[in-house]
Specification:
- With 292 residues, the chain is mostly helical.
- The protein contains 13 helices and no strands.
- Helix 4 packs antiparallel against helix 5 and helix 12 packs across helix 13.
Length: 292
């Protein structure tokens, strides 16, 4: 089958648009770690590019038919409905909508990353950027250097301690998953394993965000489930599952910072109605009570 010069040019142009959109998504995710304005610019350019490309628009429509995307959009709809009976002010409601709008990027991500090579590229960049962030975090912690953030805190280099913990948890999971791929060579597994350990240790010892602990535990369970239920269950896979999950739980249990933050959360949940000022977990108790 032969192709006319016009169709070949159109195909090349379409491929360039697809690859440009993929790079914009990667740039946006990295920028989210350090610069919201740059992330917003990349997001705007990405949306404009999708609107201008018929191929990309078609990909997004197809992605919206996938259960993962449908579930995320349904969740966003629940948030919107919930806002109508919120006890918060109008500005707080709008802020909530604005904060959760990133869920609307999921259809774009699913539409753009249907190619294994680009999935790997995306995850590798995330792991690399997060590991660099972790190294900077260690530097700030040991040298008592606070980075210029809206709410400076020792060891925090990504937005705030909650965001940093969650990002590092996902990146550690990604690094471990890449290291366990059969295609990964010995050197790659060693590098990825070191990255995962650096990220996990940072969450447990330096980053004080409790959200990071939850994400780390959830990702650890996902990693364990992947090893146990992907193919035939063997003694090796069981030992890996028990060892990996046991290591994470042991680190959290022995870390004085993690114990302090978890104990603080439990105290705030029990005394939130008597407190004169709102606390982090006390505020969430009001959220949950109003939601129910």
């Amino acid at each position: 089958m032969t192709h006319s010069p016009i169709s070949m040019i159109a195909f090349a142009s379409s491929s360039r648009a697809l690859n440009a959109a993929r790079w914009l998504m990667i740039a946006m995710v990295v920028a989210l770690l350090v610069s919201p304005p740059v992330a917003n610019l990349a997001q705007l350019l990405l949306v404009l590019l999708v609107l201008a490309s018929s191929e990309l628009r078609g990909r997004v429509v197809q992605a919206c038919r996938q259960p993962l995307v449908m579930g995320a959009l349904a969740f966003y709809l629940v948030i919107i409905i919930g806002a109508f009976y919120s006890i918060g002010s109008q500005s707080e409601v709008l802020s909530m909508w604005e904060g959760w709008r990133k869920l609307l990027l999921l259809p774009l991500g699913v539409a753009l990353y249907d190619d294994t090579r680009w999935k790997l590229r995306f995850v590798q960049v995330l792991v690399g950027a997060s590991t660099i962030g972790a190294l900077l975090s260690y530097f700030g912690w040991f040298t008592h250097t606070a980075f210029p953030l809206p709410d400076p805190e020792l060891g925090v280099v990504i937005r705030n301690h909650a965001t940093q913990g969650m990002v590092f948890g996902v990146a550690a999971f990604a690094a471990a998953t890449l290291a366990l791929r059969p295609e990964s060579g010995t050197a790659a597994r060693l590098v990825l394993g070191v990255c995962a350990l650096l990220l996990v240790a940072n969450i447990v010892l330096i980053t004080s965000g409790r959200s990071g602990y939850i994400v780390l535990l959830a990702c650890s369970l996902a990693l364990v489930a992947g090893r146990l239920f992907h193919g035939r269950v063997t003694v090796k896979s069981v030992l890996f599952a028990v060892g990996a999950l046991g290591l994470v739980v042991a680190l959290l249990a022995t870390s004085s910072l993690a114990r302090q933050r978890i104990t603080q959360a439990l105290d705030e949940m029990q005394t939130y109605e008597q407190e004169q000022t709102l606390t982090s977990m006390g505020l969430r108790m009001f959220y949950w009570k109003n939601t129910a």
